[in-house]
Amino acid sequence: MSIAIAIDGPAGAGKSTIARLAAKELGYIYVDTGALYRTIGLAAFRRDLTADDKEQIIAMLPEIKVELAFNERQEKIVLLDGEDVSGLIRTPEISMMASAVSAIPEVRAYLLDLQRDMAHTNNVIMDGRDIGTVVLPDAQIKIFLSASPECRARRRYDELIEKGMDVKYEDILSDVIERDYADSHRDIAPLKPADDAISVDTSGEDLETSVNKLLGIMRDKL
């Protein structure tokens, strides 16, 4: 029987980085569901669609192919129609598009089987917004990871600056707060902890401390 660990939480909480490192330590497959939604957001963005173009976004779905794969260095990447877009989906614009498309039921249904199939055939750590509540409600371990908006905005700002992007901290903070509201107030699968999730706040903690904290929880429960 495969083991599933669900990590949910708001944008910029460090879910992806922590989940990826924890999965490597445990020998599990890491599934970044946020990257899947970001990839659909990128596909919509490239078609000049906006959050209001719901019907066009739904019509786009049969025309695209979204995949999780490994590159030659055995790093997990996300493909859009065969193109590695892993480095193109982390901008503020695509973050907001990801939030918009994730509120569309047809988009969530489009990705649901892909996510569940991976969990049914592998030991996985999967992170997102509704993994413990909707995607993998029977996951053996559920964690809700959070940090203050200011802390999350600073992390994202430092990440984008390191990549050479011209961004302002105030804009990133505004985007974080706006996305928190959108994710927690959407009608479909709103962001919230599962009833049986363990809540972890990493505000002010460095990456190593956060990873070790979550690994401790996982090992206690396994």
Structural commentary:
- The chain is of the alpha/beta class and 222 residues long.
- The protein has one domain: Rossmann fold.
- 50% of the residues lie in helices and 16% in strands.
- The chain has nine helices and eight strands.
- A five-stranded parallel beta sheet has the order 2-6-1-7-8, sandwiched between helices.
- The longest helix has 17 residues.
- It is globular and about 45 Å long.
- The mean pLDDT is 91.
How far is the N terminus from the C terminus?
A: 13 Å
Structural category: alpha/beta
User: How does the overall form come out from the CA principal axes?
Assistant: globular
Q: What is the name of the CATH architecture?
A: 3-Layer(aba) Sandwich
Helix percent band: 40-55%
The low-confidence parts are none
Radius of gyration: 16 Å
The largest β sheet comes out as:
5 strands, parallel
Number of E-type strands: 8
- H/E element string? EHEHHEEEHHEHEHHEH
Mean pLDDT: 91
Task: Write down the CATH class.
Answer: Alpha Beta
Under CATH, the topology can be stated as: Rossmann fold
List the total number of helices.
9
Strand content: 15-25%
In short:
With 222 residues, this protein is of the alpha/beta class. The protein contains 9 helices and 8 strands. The chain has a single domain (4-221), classed as P-loop containing nucleotide triphosphate hydrolases (Rossmann fold, 3-Layer(aba) Sandwich), CATH 3.40.50.300.
Write out key terms for the chains shown.
222 residues; alpha/beta; Rossmann fold; 5-stranded parallel β-sheet; 3-stranded antiparallel β-sheet; 9 helices; 16% strand
